[in-house]
Here is the input.
Amino acid sequence: MTVSRRLLVELFFGSFLGLFLLLPSLASAQNFPAKPIKLIVPFPAGGPNDIIARVIGQRMSELSGQPVLIDNRGGQGGVLGTDAVSKAPPDGYTIAISSAGALAISPSMERVAYDAQIDLTPVTLVATVPEMLVVATNVPAKDIGELIALAKAQPGKLNFASSGPGSLPHLAGELFKLTAKIDIVHVPYRGAAPAVNDLLGQQVQMTFLDLPVLLPQVKAGALKPIAVGSVERAPTAPEVPTTAEAGFADLRIENWYGMVAPKGTPKEIVTALHALATNAMADPAVKEKLSQQGATLVGDEPEHFRQFIADETKKWAKVIKDAGVETAK
Here is the structure.
C-alpha cells in the first residue's frame, strides 16, 4: 500500500471512529431532556434569585414536557449551592441559576471549593437587576451630588448598611467610596431585611440593595431614592435617575443571575439547555413577570457569558484590593 493510500485509509477510519464516538452525545442532545432537570437555586425561597429561577424553570418545563425541579440550597452567599452543581454529573440534568456573588465576588473574598471559570460551564446570562442607592428620610440629600457633598462635609460620620461582608451591597458601597472619594463607614448585617429595618429606623444613613427589595419602601415614601446603578432607568422606578446620568458612569452596579452547568457537560447538551432557557425567557408572560421584579432578561451565548464572568471577577477583585476589604483567603 502506498503512503498516499495508507493516509487516505487512516483518514477515513479516523473520521469514521470520530463520528461513531460522537453519535451517542448527538443522540442524547436530540432527546434532551428525557427526564426531570434539577435546577439548583443557591439561596432560600422567596428572594430574587429564587423568583427568577421559578418563573423561568416553569416555562422550561412547559416547553420541554419534563419537570424542572427547584432545589433551594442556601448558604454562604450562594457558594454552597454553586459548589453542589460544580460536583454534579455533567449530563445537563443538574444545573443552577447562580448570582454575581457566588460566581464573581466570593472567589476573591474567601476560599471556595470551585473555580467558577474552570469547574462550571456557562449556559447563559439570565437576568440583571440594578442596585438602588437609597437614604433614610432624615438625610438632607435628594440626589447623589448632595449626598456626596454631605459625606465630604462630615468624613467618617455617615454609615452605609449592607447584607453582609463581601456581599454585592457591601462592595457597591466600597465602589461608591472609591469613585466619589468619600469616607463613609460600612455597617454589615445578616441579610437585607435587618439592614432595611435599621435604615427605616434611621440607625444607618444609606444602602445599596437590589431594586425589588427597596421598591416597596420607596413607593411608600419611607426611603428616599438617590440613583440606580444601571445604564438605563428602571421601568419599575422611572423617576429615579441612573448613576451614569449623575456623572458617575463607572458606578455601574447590577446584580446578575446566570445559568451554569458542571464542567465537562457536552457542547451539544449546553446548546440544548441554552435553547430551552432562552426560549423560555423570550415568552412575553415570563418577561412581564420578571420585569415586575425589576429584572432585565438577557439570554446571551455561552462564550459571551464566560467572558462576562471573567470581566466581573476582575472588576470586583480590583474593588476589593483598592478598598482594602478584609478577606478570608
